[in-house]
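Hi R.,

Here are the chain sequences for the assembly we discussed:
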Amino acid sequence: MGNAQPGGYYYAPPSHWPIVGSTALLIMASGGVMLMNSIDGGGPVFGVGVAILVFMLFGWFGTVIRESQGGLFNKQVDLSFRWSMSWFIFSEVMFFAAFFGALFYARVYSLPWLGDADNKLLWPEFRAQWPSAGPYLPPQFSPMHAWGIPALNTFLLLSSGVTVTYAHWALKMGNRKGLILGLLATVALGFTFLGFQIYEYVHAYHELNLKLTTGVFGSTFFMLTGFHGFHVTLGAVMLTVILLRSIKGHFTADHHFAFEAVAWYWHFVDVVWLLLFVFVYWV
Amino acid sequence: MSAAAPAHDHGHGHHDDHAHAHPTGLKRWLFTTNHKDIGTLYLWFSLAMFFMGGTMALLIRAELFKPGLQFLNPEFFNSLTTVHGLVMVFGAIMPAWVGFANWLIPMQIGAADMAFPRMNNWSFYLVVPAAILLVASFFVPGGAAASGWTLYPPLIIQQGIAVDMTILAVHILGASSIMGSINIITTILNLRAPGMTLMKMPLFVWTWLITAYLLIAVMPVLAGAVTMLLTDRHFGTSFFNAAGGGDPTMFMHIFWFFGHPEVYIMILPAFGVVSAIIPAFARKPLFGYASMVYATASIAILSFIVWGHHMFTVGMPAAGNLFFMYATMLIAVPTGVKIFNWIATMWKGSMTFETPMLFSIGFLCLFTIGGFSGLVLAITPVDITLHNTYYVVAHFHYVLVSGALFSIFAGVYFWLPKWTGNMYNEKLGKLHFWLSVIGFNLAFFPQHFLGLAGMPRRIPDYALQFAEWNMWSSIGAFIFGFSQLLFLYNVIECIRSNRKSEQMPWEGADSLEWTHLPTPAPYHTFETAPVIK
Amino acid sequence: MGTDMLRNHLRNAVLAAAALAGSATAHAAYDVDILPPGSPIARQIYDLHWAIIWVCVGIFVVVFGAMFYSVFKHRKAAGAKAAHFHENTTVEVIWTVIPFVILIGMAYPATRTVLEMKDTSNPDLTIKVTAFQWAWQYDYLQDGVKLTSFLATPRAQIEEWERQGEKKNPDYLLEVTQPLVVPAGKKVRLLVTSNDVIHGWYVPQLGVNQYGIPGFVKDTWFKADRPGTYRGQCSQICGKEHGYMPIVVVAKAPDEYAAWVKDQQAKSPVHTAAAAPAGAAAAPAAAEDPNRKWTLDELKAKGGEVYAANCAACHQPTGKGLPPAFPPLDGSKVVNGPKAAQIALELSGKPGTAMASFARLSDSELAAVITYTRNHWGNKTGEAIQPAEVKAARK
Ligand code: HEA
Ligand code: HEA
Ligand code: CUA
Ligand SMILES: [Cu+2]
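And here is the predicted structure of the full complex:
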């Protein structure tokens, strides 16, 4: 640490991508607000925002990839990337912590309170028991069983953790075929996971009467698994990009931070799933 | 370290090729990846937002000048209070500190720029759409969010479109803060000049390192909280709705888990600035450097376990109240260490009292008063009688205005010569200080009395026994507010004057930006790393 | 010198200074103190507050005494030469430990008060407090008395947008239609909750500040030392009229209290609906006869009063509302449409909006207010809604 070589460190030149991104977000936010409040035109506005954002992402990441391929990133830049990715993942951990916090708080405090003697004044019939949709909403729903699809999904994600590690090992060994196969397997497992997740949601809505609107159980269930699923989607898309780049031969045994960043991210998503499996589905 | 000419000459003549030709005009400011340009953008943005939030505050104070409803209808009053809080916190104070960080951190650790210049630009250009959303929310049907800046449900659930705009603005601000913080941490950890060990870094850098850590830890939590508000509003979830098994207090817990660290996010960089200024004007090294670092870290760690002191009246079990009371009281210890160290730095120094020093001394006295009123509030039973009264308003304006804002003024006067190459007008600076101190205390000290007498906050109208102090408070607020026009004038006058600053305007300043860089600082900071002995 | 004495001395000094500052306006209320405590907890709070203040003042004087000494002595202009020390472990340890010890000294009495405050066991009577936008409802659980407590200050004193407001009452904004009446010297347990958003039941002199949280019941208690009137306000922002949601507690000697309860029970027998709001005191004290036929004029007269107390805050006395937040009733489709729809709306409210359920009003009150809205301003349906219709619509 601390061996700055300002001469050799790559500092990006002026760029228009950030402000394009900001414009995209402003438009998206406006469209989102319109959509949520049923104002005409929300959809198209939102769509334009998304399109600009995607355009920006391609442009920006494309630039970074070109810079990387151009050999502009020395070891110190690489270390910067490592620090930043670690802290980014930490911020993601805290994001999930908010939702886990909600789950724990509802289970450990809110529900027992709602069922206690004083609250009989308001909710005479209510018995505090997890899973619960609260004292008012009709509670006829079934929670998701842990040992069906969720267990299978656990297995899939854990395997994908192994395959991505295998790919990394192969990359370091200079084994391109192993790298590509490992990544291919990881991407496949990731998308299979998502497929099952979608199936599970359909099942929940149609057979279990478990919905986003099913009180606090439904809220925490779909919020946690939903954001996790969203992160799996992002991870899987990024893995696909990495796969394509690997096929193009972008990575070398000692210069492949992009690969590692995505692998870290994937492991993070994995760990979150394990927590979900335990606290949302199982206990 | 005595004042030495810059070890390396990076004068303007020294032309480099890495950043290519600098764009000029609008393009320079829109596309810039230069940490100084971005710092400047942040600082101007913050000043604009300060005036905007200040104007709202003056409207509030005008309505509160006497009992009865004279100017504002109550709903609009609530919107003003809410947006005043949000704009000041997220628009004025935080961006000002990020502006300082951008300007100073690379210079103080001997780096050429921030670690991720392009992302740095985005961090800034995210606060702009967020501000647009916030301010535009006044003009949508239903008016701006009117729930207080704490956005508590279920009140916030009842309100209109503006709330969604506010929530999305908070999301965008969160993204900006997280990117900014990652950038700052990475810069500090990875781009220090050879020999610049962690324990040699100026305290401003240390305080920002820790602040950035706090930001990364709590902004995502806030994002989570407002996301749940959004789904409760529009997608039928029941996080904060008892009927569905949720709980409005749950929002408070999550919000304040963010909110309390947030207030230290606003004050830690202030500690850093004051730690730079006091030694410079006492001409004596900072007393207890190491304990300053440890105290800052302790404050940050403790800040995660005190949030419940905002919730003593929600009906927590006794054990919860006691835990949060003890934890909160503990923060007085490391904060005290800091106050004592600053005074020990002044002790047996050879002091002069230019504007930055005046604002720092003002900070010291008045922030301590704010800290003491914080301690009073931390005592659970006393908070029962003071919670959500003007005592709380007095408390947090003492720590935020005479704490954070005064040290921002101090820092601006201190570094203006380095930033612009020109010296500000000392007489006017001092005038700004004295008017501010008088106006500020007149505005906010009486609010303690109002709170003790039981006047609730966030009300547009009040009972007759509160009339006298409110009148004085409003008068003070106007004096304070209009004195800030003088600040604006001072800054502009300094930029446009040609009172060239000396290389070392402050005898006792000894961090790299003074000792190793010319005044004004060149467009590109350190082309080659300075060597730190 | 006991801390009490010291406290009083110093307090008097502050008061004197403040009095000086305010001497120009002799009648002015330049209070600088917590209001005189009216309950044991409030007294402990009062003492704790002053004890802490004086500790803080002491620290402030010592610390900033040192600083200002230094500011005067160690000036460059006075020829001071800078020393070079920058560390001293001993003093640093000392000034870490001393504050810590002081804090323990503060925490000890505070802990005792917290435990006492939180001890709601063995109350003499229990009252359920329900907050709603924007008034309080009190439910005497044992005695079957129910009161609703609205702001009693006339709007004409408050609103000064267009012209000078009327002369303000001495208790401007702190007066209610029906105060909470309690026996002095008895432990009163409050079960605080809310119907819509979070409110705060805050009466400083009784040492109580408790949020009412919708869907939850939280308890707290107080014991008024002696008969008297104690005033407070809603302490948590709850929307537009948050500033207009006062609380008045009248503590009566136990026998007077008993008489008051009897009187109330006679007025509104157990399990009948809420007491009449502002100005409706003239309404017959007898229990409501659900089958009585009301005339249009009776309904309109009563409805006007109910409207002023319950609806005008949002929909405005003019019936024009405050669009877009609060829709006008004058000309409203609902008000001029089928009556069943409006009855249903008043009974269940409109979830997710400020329009809450008004099922807590009695059948006749609802019938009256609905009739009033349907036959006032520009609305001319000519329909007289009978209490029986409202009763039938309740499920
Ligand atoms: C920069 C911002 C900032 C800072 C630094 C602080 C610092 C502190 N705050 Fe404050 N606070 C706010 C901003 C801040 N606060 C805001 C914005 C709110 C209101 C939010 C809202 O509701 O809208 C609030 C509200 C608030 C409350 C809730 C009040 C209520 O709603 O009822 C409490 C209660 O405990 C509290 C306590 C404290 C304490 C104990 C400190 C301590 O950190 C202070 C420590 C400092 C000292 C004590 C002085 C120096 C020390 C010495 C000289 C040593 C010797 C001292 C002793 C031994 C006593 N604050
Ligand atoms: C973060 C920093 C910060 C700062 C700097 C300030 C600055 C000020 N604040 Fe604020 N305040 C908060 C944070 C801050 N505040 C927060 C978080 C709340 C709580 C919100 C809530 O309850 O939800 C609050 C609430 C709050 C209230 C309570 C409102 C209520 O409860 O209803 C009041 C009332 O007096 C107040 C007053 C002021 C004043 C007079 C200033 C002054 O310092 C302002 C100085 C004035 C100016 C700078 C004006 C400059 C402009 C001109 C001179 C005019 C020129 C005009 C034009 C060109 C049009 N503030
Ligand atoms: Cu009810 Cu504020
Ligand atoms: Cu706090």
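The radius of gyration of chain C is 28 Å. Chain C is about 40% helix and 15% strand.

Let me know if anything looks off.

Best,
T.
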